[in-house]
């Protein structure tokens, strides 16, 4: 591979792909959202987790199909481009860039907060730890997919075991009468108000799609990675959410900022602080490595297609990693973290907007699926899935204007660049 190559090496095995999927999905969503949702929807919060899990199943079926049959470093944008046009793909790329720029810094900030809580540090400690996590994730990816793939596989097994133990121990040894419990099923609609926010916890598989070009056998391995990771994640999410609602009071100040920390404290007391810090930081670190991997591939693919500067589309010959794109996303994420630290935008706003954006991106994937599949049964499945997406989007707030604006910008800029004669890379 030459220094200026614009093709990614196929190095990912199915085991590494499963590990990558789990660590990409499990992150700040699990560490923060069970508490935020519980605080806002009380006992009905658990239903938002269940409904979102049911909604995401047909979306993941579609992702598995698209990732297996249309593997591209452009991920969702590549799917949309294959189904419609380069301009539609470019619009999706801009939406993804705007979404990653909010969601990934929110992940890092959550990790910094957990670290600060573990060492009894103040706000400054949390900010420093946030930047430290971003640097760590960038460095792991800087050495290439082979290194980060192995690390993700090990971390995935560790996280699944640790989080399963936390949920189980809280339900067995904690005071299950201390919380609000679970609302009667007749009140499940009260959980709809937090569905958009909770959906952020179910995002990540769309990030996995950006790695499809690097699979040794994408047609076989991508669906396996999606299926196994989903089953693992859903068990962990429902277990943690249930434990939070049964053992914690919604008025506990820690519920909104570090519910897993409060969960462990409820049955371990002060001895839990160190364990919480280690668990939270490890989860976020693993999540950030995968997220930054995906984001760098998005920037790489966008540059290769001509939307971003060409310099971002080179692949380093030694690491087989798009290092220039990686450094760029690191700098952007650091800038957003700085804005959050300056109180210009809150962590809750970052999570809220990113969650809604990701759901819209799932909807675009469904549209691409409908355009690309030929069988009538597949199209019917796609239409039903699209109807679900539209219904859920009806619960979103005025923040929906942000992703719609990004789509319009991407579509317009792509048209202007095409008019200027920009040549794009054609995916296989």
UniProtKB/TrEMBL annotation:
<keyword id="KW-0812">Transmembrane</keyword>
<feature type="transmembrane region" description="Helical">
    <location>
        <begin position="94"/>
        <end position="115"/>
    </location>
</feature>
<feature type="transmembrane region" description="Helical">
    <location>
        <begin position="127"/>
        <end position="145"/>
    </location>
</feature>
<dbReference type="Pfam" id="PF13520">
    <property type="entry name" value="AA_permease_2"/>
</dbReference>
<keyword id="KW-1003">Cell membrane</keyword>
<feature type="transmembrane region" description="Helical">
    <location>
        <begin position="380"/>
        <end position="401"/>
    </location>
</feature>
<feature type="transmembrane region" description="Helical">
    <location>
        <begin position="194"/>
        <end position="212"/>
    </location>
</feature>
<feature type="transmembrane region" description="Helical">
    <location>
        <begin position="224"/>
        <end position="244"/>
    </location>
</feature>
<dbReference type="InterPro" id="IPR002293">
    <property type="entry name" value="AA/rel_permease1"/>
</dbReference>
<protein>
    <submittedName>
        <fullName>Amino acid permease</fullName>
    </submittedName>
</protein>
<feature type="transmembrane region" description="Helical">
    <location>
        <begin position="154"/>
        <end position="174"/>
    </location>
</feature>
<dbReference type="InterPro" id="IPR050367">
    <property type="entry name" value="APC_superfamily"/>
</dbReference>
<keyword id="KW-0472">Membrane</keyword>
<feature type="transmembrane region" description="Helical">
    <location>
        <begin position="353"/>
        <end position="373"/>
    </location>
</feature>
<feature type="transmembrane region" description="Helical">
    <location>
        <begin position="324"/>
        <end position="347"/>
    </location>
</feature>
<keyword id="KW-1133">Transmembrane helix</keyword>
<feature type="transmembrane region" description="Helical">
    <location>
        <begin position="275"/>
        <end position="303"/>
    </location>
</feature>
<feature type="transmembrane region" description="Helical">
    <location>
        <begin position="12"/>
        <end position="33"/>
    </location>
</feature>
<feature type="transmembrane region" description="Helical">
    <location>
        <begin position="45"/>
        <end position="66"/>
    </location>
</feature>
């Amino acid at each position: 591979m030459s220094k200026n190559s614009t093709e990614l090496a196929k190095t990912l095995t199915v085991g590494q792909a499963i590990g990558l999927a789990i660590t990409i999905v499990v992150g700040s969503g699990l560490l923060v959202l069970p508490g935020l949702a519980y605080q806002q929807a009380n006992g009905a919060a658990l239903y938002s987790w269940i409904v979102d899990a049911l909604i995401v199943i047909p979306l993941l079926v579609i992702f598995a199909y698209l990732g297996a049959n249309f593997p591209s470093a452009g991920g969702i944008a590549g799917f949309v481009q294959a189904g419609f046009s380069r301009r539609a793909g470019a619009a999706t790329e801009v939406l993804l860039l705007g979404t990653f720029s909010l969601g990934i810094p929110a992940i890092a900030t959550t990790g910094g907060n957990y670290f600060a809580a573990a060492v009894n540090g103040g706000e400054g400690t949390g900010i420093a730890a946030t930047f430290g996590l971003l640097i760590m994730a960038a460095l792991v990816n800087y050495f290439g997919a082979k290194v980060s793939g192995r690390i993700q596989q090990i971390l995935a097994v560790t996280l699944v075991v640790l989080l399963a133990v936390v949920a189980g121990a809280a339900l067995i040894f904690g005071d299950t009468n201390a919380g609000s419990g679970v609302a009667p099923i007749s009140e499940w609609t009260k959980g709809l108000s937090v569905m958009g926010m909770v959906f952020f916890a179910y995002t990540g598989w769309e990030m996995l799609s950006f790695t499809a070009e690097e699979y040794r056998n994408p047609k076989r391995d991508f669906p396996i990675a999606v299926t196994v990771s989903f089953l693992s994640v859903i068990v962990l999410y429902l277990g943690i959410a249930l434990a939070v609602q049964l053992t914690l009071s919604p008025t506990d100040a820690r519920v909104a900022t570090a519910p897993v920390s409060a969960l462990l404290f409820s049955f371990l007391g002060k001895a839990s602080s160190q364990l919480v810090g280690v668990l939270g930081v490890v989860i976020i670190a693993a999540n950030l490595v995968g997220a930054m991997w995906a984001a760098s591939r998005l920037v790489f693919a966008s540059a290769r297609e001509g939307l971003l500067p060409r310099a971002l589309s080179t692949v380093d010959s030694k690491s087989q990693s798009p290092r220039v794109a990686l450094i760029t996303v690191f700098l952007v994420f650091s800038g957003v973290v700085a804005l959050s630290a300056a109180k210009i935008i809150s962590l809750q706003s970052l999570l809220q907007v990113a969650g809604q954006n990701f759901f819209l991106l799932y909807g675009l994937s469904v549209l691409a699926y409908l355009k690309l599949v030929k069988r009538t049964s597949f199209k019917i499945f796609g239409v039903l899935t699209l109807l679900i997406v539209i219904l859920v989007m009806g619960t979103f707030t005025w923040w929906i204007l942000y992703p719609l604006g990004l789509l319009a910008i991407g579509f317009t800029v792509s048209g202007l660049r095409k008019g200027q004669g920009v040549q794009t890379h054609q995916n296989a």
